[in-house]
Design goal:
With 203 residues, this protein is mainly α. It has nine helices and five strands; from the N terminus they run H-H-H-H-H-H-E-H-H-E-E-E-E-H.
Length: 203
């Protein structure tokens, strides 16, 4: 499957593929996916598209068509759009697909917030060192104050599980050794995998 055709034609190919395998598909979600991808390509002023390998194209279109949460479907659509963009300079990895299949909209929001925090607190025109841009649990809780604490922690643990964030190791002032932060001093840092994922589908 070479996606040099307009998105509507590509969607038709995927629809035929899904039908042939007798997979159930909500055609309203398919149409929304097609519209969002076309819109994103237009906003990015992308005049030509590039080939997407089958091992990436099929699962991306399948998940985008089947996703019933608008926020998560938008993320899949952005991933498809970036994959089609020959100017996009972040390699689209199969791991991105596995991660997106494993996260909720809250997970995505917390990951994006962590990314934005790093961007806003990094020195301009300097390479960002993700390991030195920690965000505290208290800051995450304040940002998502309407969300139950237990839900926030489940999302954080899931983002750690898929290796998009990790606990921050800091050098203790009391002893000359590294230790995990605890309690109210708990901090997290964005991993390079998490940063690449956000670049690929959440910006």
């Amino acid at each position: 499957m070479i996606f040099h055709e307009p998105c509507s034609e590509a969607s038709g190919i995927v629809t035929d593929m899904l039908k042939s395998k007798r997979w159930m598909i909500n055609f309203n979600r398919l149409l929304r996916m097609s519209d969002e991808v076309t819109k994103t390509l237009g906003e990015g002023k992308i005049k030509s598209t590039q080939y997407i390998p089958l091992k990436l194209a099929i699962p991306m279109f399948e998940q985008a068509c089947l996703e019933e949460d608008d926020e998560l479907q938008d993320i899949w659509c952005k991933l498809i759009s970036k994959s089609l963009d020959p100017e996009f300079d972040v390699a689209i990895k199969p791991a991105f697909i596995d991660i997106l299949k494993s996260i909720t909209s809250l997970d995505a929001k917390i990951l994006k917030y962590t990314f934005d925090f790093v961007s806003e607190n990094s020195a301009p025109n300097q390479e960002v060192d993700l390991n030195n841009c920690p965000v505290s649990l208290d800051e995450i809780k304040d940002k998502f104050s309407t969300v139950p604490y237990s839900d926030i922690m489940v999302s954080i643990y899931n983002l750690k599980r898929v290796q998009c964030i990790q606990e921050y190791l800091y050098k203790s002032r009391a002893v000359n050794d590294f230790s995990f932060s605890v309690g109210r001093d708990l901090y997290y840092v964005l991993t390079y995998l998490g940063s690449a994922l956000v670049e690929a589908c959440m910006k």
